């Protein structure tokens, strides 16, 4: 999967969570937990080969 496509797959949910949190559609503690958890999940699912380019 191309890196830009993988980035978009994670950017869209991150943006949606942030907007829902700001709009008050999800409670504050849940929103703050999701804002932290989504990037952690992104890093955890990143292929190791993508980190070794250098």
Gist of the model:
By secondary structure, the chain is mainly alpha-helical. It is 78% helix and 0% strand. The longest helix has 21 residues, at 3-23.
Task: Explain the overall architecture.
The chain is built from three helices and no strands. By secondary structure, the protein is mainly alpha-helical. The radius of gyration is 13 Å and the shape is elongated. The relative contact order is 0.13. The model has no long low-confidence stretch (mean pLDDT 84).
Q: Work out the strand percent.
A: under 5%
Distance between the termini: 19 Å
**What is the residue-mean pLDDT, rounded to a whole number?**
84
Query: Globular, elongated, flat, extended or rod-shaped: what is the shape?
Result: elongated
Counted by DSSP, the helix tally is: 3
Classify the helix fraction into a percent range: over 70%
Secondary structure tally: strands: 0
Output the helix-strand order. HHH
Largest sheet: none
């Amino acid at each position: 999967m191309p890196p830009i496509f993988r980035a978009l797959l994670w950017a869209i949910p991150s943006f949606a969570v942030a907007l829902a949190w700001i709009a008050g559609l999800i409670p504050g503690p849940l929103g703050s937990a999701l804002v932290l958890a989504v990037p952690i999940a992104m890093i955890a699912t990143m292929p190791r080969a993508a980190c070794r380019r250098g």
